[in-house]
């Protein structure tokens, strides 16, 4: 199966290891991974801030970049959700809207693709650690992907998953919200970090680079000894026993 | 009390909220309790999503035929001997109520909670005429006694105060001498209010829903005071905003079920009062004179726009009760009697953008509100729609932000430029990088690094790794 990877701007620049793990995972399940060079950013920062004409530029670029793709897979819940927004964003340009619909129909977040399309529930990973999972708002509420990551993580050999209290509360990232309303955002992330610490997990797993950057950045500042990992890294992890 | 309340500047209001540890504690526990109760009581209904869809359908249908139902309502009220007045603006509504009060030579008015009369500043208008106006809902009463402190929650207006503070308010203003025990305070207030009810010439209430087919108004309360406000005074005035209407009693049943469960996690509240015109000859209590004031005040401008569904709102505060931003800043930060997510959507619609341009940004767009809303208002999408109008139409966005977004637009649509810039990022950021993190970023990164570290851009981007890997595959 041929899969085109939408790595996202944050994934490309800040979390290359998550991208590598994504490629290896997909290859493990017989996908041929291709990386369209013309891709840039999904346009969320501009879209969410109200600059829709700038967001449309990003949308068109992404549509162009993935024109020939059979499947588009991205290791980011919120960027995947953004791809589904394009149709609405381009509603005044019927030609583009059609293309947006086509892109949306073939786009998946990584865990969603593994479970729903490849029918994989166990990636064969092995990782001895105690971890908790952060449900990103856009992934769970807008994209409605909640079961897939839980299923996959539940099947990682040796991984002990602890439930995160108040897991449905936003971590306070919200893209530009974090820099437009920094004080409120800080209070939100602090609350999240407290909940994470209360689990006594060693690792925080997430499926969205934005949230990981926010929570990880706060924990790093506060010297909180919890490691942050992208779900692809965990699902691709193997260890000698 | 007008729609807009408190200090002018948004940031000042936010800081005040963030500093108020006590308020944040109360809000947190109230949110948790209400949220859990809502979940339990909505699960009882079975398929909650189906109920939400039904709620949405009813609201959409009603709004799309609003003229028809308003006419029907008005005819029915008139048939029953009541008077109906359509107020285009707050001033018109106030003037009508003042006129009725003058005609009745009224001195005292008792009220039961109505947000729209607050939006209209009706109390101020009546007090100007020398009338005494007494709020009879416990929460509203506390605020009124405390020098008209603004409400901070849609359903629990004095949520920001604790028992000790309430006790102090009554001790100072009403010579209350008992403890801060909730029962003691309530007993005291009940005693105070009993006299007011008996003395009042006019009762003013809001209206949760008006039933078009019968010309009835309904009030959903937990204290029973609305019952007294509608039963005792000779003259009764109900003030409703024009969208608070359902076609028949059947829809009323659905909406009340959604409202009670979403608002307080109850199947039904203690009192659901309905009132149909003045009392008949064979009836023992009820007003002799009934007026219904239907207020527009900017609402008809919302009809037919992308914000129409904001008028679905049934003021249950479910969105407020799940909002993490509300939890940290409190209701006063919104500077409007409508606070929380629905406040951020509604206030700019009713009061314009100029003074409320920060409100739509006071959200991380986590969509918890959208998920909670029993009538499916896409709240977070409407916040984005407001942002679009603020930046692209009203041009109220900041200059630096506008430039940043312009650069963003150019960058993302020119892949070569984009690749070049992201390749340089690691090098450009190196003066600020310590280890693998940036703790004190320059310029626009400051707002981020004030509270958090930023990971340093990777020296080898994903795309470089991928290209190299491909190349080495070919080499093999
Ligand atoms: S917007 Fe929805 S959730 Fe919020 S108060 Fe109105 S009806 Fe309730």
UniProtKB/TrEMBL annotation, chain A:
Role description: Is involved in L-lactate degradation and allows cells to grow with lactate as the sole carbon source.
InterPro entries according to UniProt: Cys_rich_dom (IPR004017), LutA (IPR022822)
Organism whose genome encodes this protein: Salicibibacter cibi
Protein name: Lactate utilization protein A
Pfam families referenced in this protein's UniProt entry, alphabetically: CCG
Lineage, uppermost ranks: Bacteria, Bacillati, Bacillota, Bacilli, Bacillales
GO CC list: cytosol
Gene Ontology molecular function: oxidoreductase activity
Gene: lutA
Domain Cysteine-rich: 3-83, 132-215
Family statement drawn from the similarity comment of this UniProt entry: Belongs to the LutA/YkgE family.
Domain of life the protein comes from: Bacteria
Biological-process GO terms, alphabetical: lactate metabolic process
Automatic annotation (TrEMBL), chain B:
Residue ranges of every copy of the Lactate utilization protein B C-terminal domain listed in the record: 385-469
A GO term for molecular function: metal ion binding
Family annotation (Pfam families): Fer4_8 (PF13183), LUD_dom (PF02589), LutB_C (PF11870)
InterPro entries, sorted: 4Fe4S_Fe-S-bd, 4Fe4S_Fe_S_CS, FTHF_cligase-like_sf, Helical_ferredxn, LUD_dom, LutB/LldF, LutB_C, NagB/RpiA_transferase-like
Sections of the chain in a coiled coil: none
Residues in LUD domain copies: 70-295
Entry keyword Ribosomal protein: no
Domain 4Fe-4S ferredoxin-type: 310-377
A Gene Ontology BP annotation from the UniProt entry: lactate metabolic process
Superkingdom of origin organism: Bacteria
Transmembrane stretches, start-end: none
Keywords tagged on the record: 4Fe-4S, Electron transport, Iron, Iron-sulfur, Metal-binding, Repeat, Transport
NCBIfam families in the cross-refs: LutB/LldF family L-lactate oxidation iron-sulfur protein (TIGR00273)
UniProt xrefs under PANTHER family: LACTATE UTILIZATION PROTEIN B
Listed name of the protein: Iron-sulfur cluster-binding protein
Source species of the chain: Salicibibacter cibi
């Amino acid at each position: 199966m041929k899969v085109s990877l939408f790595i996202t701007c944050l994934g490309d620049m800040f979390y290359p290891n998550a991208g590598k793990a994504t490629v290896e995972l997909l290859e493990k399940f017989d996908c041929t991974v291709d990386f369209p060079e013309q891709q840039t950013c999904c346009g969320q920062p501009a879209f969410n801030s109200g600059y829709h004409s700038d967001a449309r530029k990003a949308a068109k670029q992404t549509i162009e970049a993935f024109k020939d793709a059979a499947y588009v897979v991205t290791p980011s819940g919120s960027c995947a959700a953004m791809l589904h927004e394009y149709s609405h964003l381009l509603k005044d340009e019927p030609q583009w809207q059609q293309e947006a619909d086509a892109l949306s129909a073939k786009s998946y977040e990584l865990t969603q693709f593994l479970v729903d399309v490849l029918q994989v529930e166990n990636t064969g990973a092995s990782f001895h650690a105690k971890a908790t999972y952060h449900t990103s708002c856009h992934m769970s509420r807008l994209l409605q992907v909640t079961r897939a990551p839980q299923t996959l993580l539940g099947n990682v050999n040796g991984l002990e998953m602890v439930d995160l209290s108040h897991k449905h509360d936003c971590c306070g990232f919200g893209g530009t919200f974090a820099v437009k309303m920094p004080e409120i955002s800080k209070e939100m992330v602090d609350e999240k970090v407290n909940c994470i610490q209360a689990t006594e997990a060693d690792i925080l797993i997430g499926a969205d680079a934005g949230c990981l950057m926010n929570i990880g950045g706060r924990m790093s500042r506060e010297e909180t000894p919890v490691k942050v990992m992208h779900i692809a890294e965990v699902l691709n992890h193997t260890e000698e026993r | 009390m007008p729609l807009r309340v408190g200090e002018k500047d948004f940031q000042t209001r936010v800081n005040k909220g963030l500093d108020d540890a006590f308020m944040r504690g109360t809000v947190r526990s109230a949110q948790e309790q209400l949220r859990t109760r809502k979940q339990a009581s909505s699960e009882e209904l079975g398929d909650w999503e189906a109920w939400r869809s039904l709620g949405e359908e009813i609201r959409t249908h009603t709004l799309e035929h609003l003229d028809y139902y308003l006419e029907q309502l008005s005819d029915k009220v008139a048939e029953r001997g009541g008077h109906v007045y359509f107020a285009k603006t707050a001033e018109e509504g106030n003037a009508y109520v003042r006129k009725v009060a003058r005609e009745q030579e009224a001195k005292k008015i008792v009220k039961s909670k109505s947000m729209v009369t607050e939006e209209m500043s009706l109390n101020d208008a009546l007090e100007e005429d020398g009338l005494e106006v007494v709020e009879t809902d416990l929460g509203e009463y506390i605020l009124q006694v405390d020098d008209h402190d603004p409400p901070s929650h849609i359903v629990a207006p004095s949520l920001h105060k604790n028992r000790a503070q309430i006790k102090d308010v009554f001790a100072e203003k009403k010579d209350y001498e008992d403890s801060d025990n909730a029962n003691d305070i309530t007993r005291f207030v009940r005693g105070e209010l009993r006299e007011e009810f008996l003395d009042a010439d006019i009762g003013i209430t809001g209206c949760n829903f008006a039933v078009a087919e019968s010309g009835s108004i309904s009030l959903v309360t937990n204290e029973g005071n609305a019952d007294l406000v509608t039963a005792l005074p000779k003259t009764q005035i109900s003030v409703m905003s024009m969208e608070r209407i359902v076609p028949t009693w059947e829809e009323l049943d659905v909406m009340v079920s959604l409202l009670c469960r979403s608002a307080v996690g109850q199947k039904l509240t203690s009192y659901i009062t309905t009132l149909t015109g003045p009392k008949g000859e064979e009836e023992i209590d009820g007003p002799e004179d009934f007026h219904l004031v239907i207020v527009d005040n900017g609402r008809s401008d919302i009809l037919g726009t992308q914000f129409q569904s904001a008028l679905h709102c049934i003021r249950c505060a479910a969105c407020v009760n799940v909002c993490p931003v509300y939890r940290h800043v409190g209701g006063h930060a919104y500077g409007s009697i409508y606070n929380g997510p629905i406040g951020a959507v509604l206030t700019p619609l009713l009061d314009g953008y100029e003074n409320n341009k920060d409100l739509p940004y006071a959200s991380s767009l986590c969509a918890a509100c959208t998920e909670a809303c029993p009538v499916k208002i896409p709240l977070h999408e409407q916040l984005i729609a407001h942002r679009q109008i603020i930046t692209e139409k009203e041009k109220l966005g900041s200059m630096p932000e506008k430039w940043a977004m312009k650069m963003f637009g150019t960058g993302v649509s020119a892949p070569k430029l984009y690749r070049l810039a992201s390749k340089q990022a690691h090098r450009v950021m190196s003066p600020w990088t310590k280890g693998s993190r940036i703790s004190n970023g320059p310029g626009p990164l400051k707002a981020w690094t004030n509270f958090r570290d930023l990971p340093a851009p990777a020296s080898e981007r994903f795309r470089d790794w991928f290209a190299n890997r491909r190349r080495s595959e070919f080499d093999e």
